[in-house]
Design brief:
By secondary structure, the protein is α/β, with parallel strands linked by helices. The chain has 10 helices and 10 strands. Helix content is 35%, strand content 17%. The termini are close together.
């Protein structure tokens, strides 16, 4: 599932090719432009369960993996899903969501895993805190409050679970990209290219070759969609395509957004 305010025709060729790709547009009632910078967009991740109900192809979805625009998939997702389910979701009755450990804050909101029928309270609380703290522009701020509430046992309706970054998640910089593009190392399962000023420090040539090797796309396509040292902006659809490419099982019970 891709939630975007971009024109529908941008993804028409992909939806015609793959019937499992669902493109949805934000509902006007769900915007909150009182929030700062790009938080009005980030806030939509807290609506993902409601948006699943908007398309009949998603009715039977049980598990949801959310990922930001600046994440790419490098390996088969099966091992990570199996470990996450057996480690964090066994015998849980109240709402729960699994996040990776943050680099500075306790949790990072760029990706998370949840079970559809067992997580609504967590997403609702996250959205409430975003809407209350209108001067903040990072969703991790509200996640940090939720984590503190959990540690002090002030929040009884939701459990946030912390997953270690190793061995499945890697935050890439120029040096890591160079090492991977040379073929001397195996791609991590999940690679987060921080869509911040850090991306400007990675030389264009390293970025271009890295994406060409990883995605198997022609150089002209990569150079069109990766803006280089200004900022890394891999097309969101690339992440969706890579998830479908790497996930070789029955996709009817998996949704990515």
């Amino acid at each position: 599932m891709l939630v975007t305010d971009a024109p529908s025709d941008r993804y028409e060729s992909l939806t015609q090719e793959d019937g499992n790709l669902v493109v949805l547009h934000p509902l006007s009632a769900d915007w909150n432009f009182e929030l700062r910078r790009d938080l009005p967009y980030k806030r939509f991740k807290t609506f993902l369960l409601q948006y699943l109900s908007r398309d009949p192809r998603l009715v039977k979805v049980e598990w949801v993996y959310y990922l930001d625009i600046d994440l790419v998939v490098g390996q088969d997702l099966h091992p990570w899903f199996r470990q996450a389910e057996s480690t964090y979701f066994q015998s849980r009755t109240k709402a729960s969501v699994a996040f990776f450990d943050g680099n500075v804050s306790p949790l990072q909101g760029g990706q998370f895993l949840l079970r559809k029928n067992n997580s609504e309270d967590c997403l609702l609380r996250w959205r409430q805190l975003m809407d209350f703290h209108t001067t903040e522009h990072k969703d991790q701020y509200s996640l940090g409050i939720m984590w503190d509430e959990q540690q002090s046992r002030k929040q009884a309706n939701c459990t946030l679970m912390r997953m270690p970054q190793e061995p499945f998640l890697s935050f890439l910089d120029g040096r890591a990209m160079s090492r991977l593009k040379q073929g001397n190392h195996e791609y991590p399962t999940l690679m987060h290219i921080k869509n911040t000023d850090d991306a400007k420090k990675i030389p264009d040539a390293i970025q271009f070759e890295f994406y060409e090797n990883l995605l198997g796309l022609p150089s002209d396509v990569v150079r069109k969609h990766v803006t280089g040292r200004k900022r890394i902006r891999p097309n969101r659809t690339w992440s969706e395509v890579q998830v479908q490419k790497r996930y070789n099982g029955d996709r009817r019970n998996l949704a990515t957004t």
